[in-house]
Amino acid sequence: MVKYDKFLPVPGFKAAGLHCGIKKNKSKKDLSIIYSEKKAISAATFTTNKVKAAPVQINMENIKNENTQAIVINSGNANACTGKKGFDDAMEMTLTTAKELDLSSNEVLVASTGIIGVSMPMDKIIPGITKGVSLISNDGFDHAAEGILTTDSSTKTVSVEFTIDGKNIIISGMAKGSGMIHPNMATMLGFILTNASISKKMLQKALSHSVKDSFNMISVDGDTSTNDMVIILANESANNNTINLEDKNYIKFKKALGIVTVELAKMIAGDGEGATKLIEVNLSGSKTKEDAKLCAKSIITSNLVKSAFFGGDANWGRILCSMGYSGGDFNPEYVNIFFEGENGKIQLVKDGMGLSFDEDLAKKILLEDYIKIIVDLKDGKYSAKAWGCDLSYDYVKINGAYRT
């Protein structure tokens, strides 16, 4: 199994990305189209926010179809809280894409990201879709990955290549996300493509499982979006024996998909608005998996923990405190806490009590751009990982003027 830190084109899929005029800056792409040359099996997960954008509502119905053949995505406008007009606009995006590609509208999924509560500039989007369809190609994925971005500092892509039944399988993913990021999905969009042959039931099962341990374990600012979704399409062009049971091939596929979703999730967490460092919580020794997840997510969500990491302050008390209100069951008198980075590993807490530690070494670790918080509850066999970032002055600057 080989991982690539780029989007490896998947046989049978094409894409395009372009500037259609939603964003004021003409150098920034704001519309993307992903197209499967043959009907593809589809699966998805959607935001848990009660306020759901129009594209989410449409996709929750269209994903019930066995097949999907195209996805149209815009950035710069969320098409959320826009009433019936917003719903009609999202539907028109699917209808236009379907017409241009000679598909049924229910074979098209739609995604939007950007400012909430603003009507879609359909006079720009509809011609943009027509132009985008004319541009789709096997080499269009880098442009498509650009077209889905908002405040992201860079594109987020990853691929895994492996074999099933002697057939070469590729799973490639792209994502966007930088702010309004919180467990149970975030202001993020994820699009994953594969040439594997797999049933819809097994594809949904694998995706749902992978999302729980990846996108649902990241936090930037504690806000859960109205628009987030992860969509996977499998076009079955690899011609492996169809995966329709939880057998060894399913396990292999799920492992590869897990690599893709975790890597994309880490990229989103590390690219948090104003972030200067990626923080990973590696928690073990929990009585249950749920307790482990609750404690790990609470640490990564704490604004006090995030602020301390921005300042390079080894304030371990905030970590223990955040676990205490997480709802996870653990004994504080058993807990060990470590920090780890390229400069080494240091223990700060043993059996729930602070240790005398090398402040200079702790500072060196905390000033790195990828830091691990290692927590051992010493009370069971379950573990969990979560990812987030520090909270900087720039986060407030970005979000203080996001709309204007």
Structure, described:
The active site is at residue 187. Substrate binds at residues 150, 176, 187, 273, 399, 404. The record marks 186-187 as: Cleavage. The protein is 33% helix and 29% strand. A hairpin with a 2-residue loop joins strand 12 and strand 13 (344-350). The model is unreliable at 180-186 (pLDDT under 50). By secondary structure, the chain is an alpha+beta fold. The chain is globular.
Question: Which short descriptors sum up this protein?
Answer:
about 400 residues; alpha+beta; L-amino peptidase D-ALA esterase/amidase; Ubiquitin-like (UB roll); 2 domains; 7-stranded mixed sheet; Arg_biosynth_ArgJ; amino-acid biosynthesis; cytoplasm; Arginine biosynthesis bifunctional protein ArgJ; arginine biosynthesis
Structural class: alpha+beta
State the CATH class of the largest domain: Alpha Beta
CATH architecture group name of the largest domain: 4-Layer Sandwich
Q: Any idea how many domains? A: 2
**In this structure, how is the largest beta sheet organized?**
9 strands, mixed
Distance from N terminus to C terminus (CA atoms, Å) equals 45 Å
Count the helices. How many? 11
Q: What's the SSE pattern? A: EEEHEHEHHEEEHEEHEHHHEEEHEEH
C-alpha Rg (nearest Å): 22 Å
- CATH homologous superfamily grouping of the largest domain: L-amino peptidase D-ALA esterase/amidase
Outline: globular
CATH topology of the largest domain: L-amino peptidase D-ALA esterase/amidase
Tell me the fraction of residues in β-strands, as a range.
25-35%
Low-pLDDT runs of 5+ residues are 180-186
Number of strand segments = 16
